[in-house]
Amino acid sequence: MKLTSTYVFFGTLFFFIVAAGHAQTIIYSQPEKRDFDKFKFDVIAKHRNILLVYKAVYFSNPYHTAPRPPAQIVTTLEQLPIRGRRRVSAPQNEFVNNSVLESAICFYDTTMRLLDEKVLPLPKQITGVNFLVYEDFFYLYYQYRDGRTIYCMAAKIGMDGTMIDKPIEMDRTTVTGIYYQDEIYSVIYSEDKQHILALNLNIYNLPNSVLHTILFDRELRALRRLNNILSMPASEYLSEFQLDNTGSLLFVGLSDETHTKDGLQGALFTLPANEDSIAFSYIVPSSICVDDLRLLIDNRHRRVILASFYSSRMRAPIEGLYMMVRDADGRRRDRFSRAIFADSLRRVISGKASDRKTVFDDYYLQDLHLAQDGSFTIETQQLVLTPDLSPYNRWDYLPLYGVGSLEFARYNPYEHDHYYPWNQWHYLHDDFGFTSRGALIARMDTAGIAEWVNSINMKQVEWAHSTVGYKSIIANRLLYFLYNIRIRQRTYLTAQSIDSDGGINTDDRLKEDLALRDSHSDYFYYPRMAKLVDNGELILPCRRGHLIYLAKVDF
């Protein structure tokens, strides 16, 4: 779940050198009296210098689930590993109860001192919780199942934690499949928060999946209810569901035609707010193959941006980044571009001649950030499973659906690891570790042409997948990367930065082998689960022994 929108406007200057003398700090809360494996949190808002934090105690571990039948859409903690585009068999009916036993709103001051805690009068066993925050209230969206009926609900809550009126039923669906599902809806909203959309995708009658959508205004008045059949090509793998400021739904799809010259043909799907049917168009030329498309909506300039790694053919080494910029109003032709990775960059990253050709095959797109002038950055990170298993590669982490298993597939863009390919490996044995060599950042101009590409050393070796990875944050007009690092056989929290010219660590307080101030080796940090609070401020969970803490980091 995300507090901010999918992208962030920086300012007129893309970044700005950090102001001298500003102190970076970490402040810890008192320990939580909850089982770590059943605890989850989300920052709701910062209101009048008071932090509102949602805390939930789950029936089971929300971060590590047992095998479940895989979904068609990219889901968050429900994917099975696949080999050679074939689904790995897994025991059926091993469902884990990932619903909430208790949920509460906690209030912290700026020193992370707990001021109050209010338990929410909501049904137990709710799922799919996320938030939409306005000036003086917020919506809490959730789902719950009663028999075979799943309800999509919204509770309006004031900034004092008091529920305003009764929860609103947004929609309900009767599940008839062989497996009971507790969570089938996705609730997304536009950047200006004036349009809200609830959607679900019924995959029971493949290949004729049915997309059900309900568009609401900010008062949760239903404006349109539609059902669209997705039988067109490139609708086998769907992701990146987003809503623009006009209320139009956009998402991307990839085809399962993996043995043709087109590789994974990509398409952009659009459902305008004032139309009844979905339009689609191919967005990837037949001369290249993409494995994962990311969508960025530029509401200010009425544009759509798509980005992906690409290669010349399926399973060939990654050659560079592919971009497409589309005018949402159709006033100019689509602009396509490629950023080919130079040999000099490959040499710097690999260090070995034998690795240069395939050095980027372990890199995955993580995030995109949009600047005020329409330029944008692309963040990628190397992610490797150790010991290396040859059947696993970047072409194998797309989800496959089990025909006859799930009736609905679900997509949640607000989860902390939505862009994390190791989701599929939650179910491997504890003998496997997770490593990362570094991150690759590219800045693109308004037309999608690369201005610079640079790398950041970010060496990580961990046995717990949830501690590997990073959280990026805009602060002091710099882009920071917060992550764990080993120093003298101990793990600390650290950060590095990059400026508008691609300069590394122009904030001289930080460098790759230096722990953050107030970071301690006896804490176990989870930076990838961090939530943004304010400019240069975020909160992340950490663990000390058997106790859980929340740490507030200020840059």
Describe this entry's structure for a reader:
It is a single chain. The chain is an all-beta fold. 1% of the residues lie in helices and 46% in strands. It is built from one helix and 37 strands. It has one helix at 343-350, and strands at 25-28, 39-47, 50-58, 82-83, 86-87, 100-108, 114-119, 127-133, 137-146, 149-158, 163-174, 186-189, 195-202, 209-217, 222-230, 237-243, 249-254, 266-271, 279-282, 289-290, 294-298, 303-311, 320-327, 335-340, 363-370, 376-382, 384-386, 408-409, 433-444, 450-462, 470-475, 478-487, 490-498, 524-525, 531-534, 537-544, 547-554. Strands 1, 34, 35, 36 and 37 form a five-stranded antiparallel β-sheet that branches. Strands 12, 13, 14, 15 and 28 form a five-stranded antiparallel β-sheet that branches. Strand 9 and strand 10 (149-158) form a beta hairpin. The longest helix has 8 residues, at 343-350. The two termini are 22 Å apart. Mean pLDDT is 82; it is low at 1-21, 65-95 and 399-404.
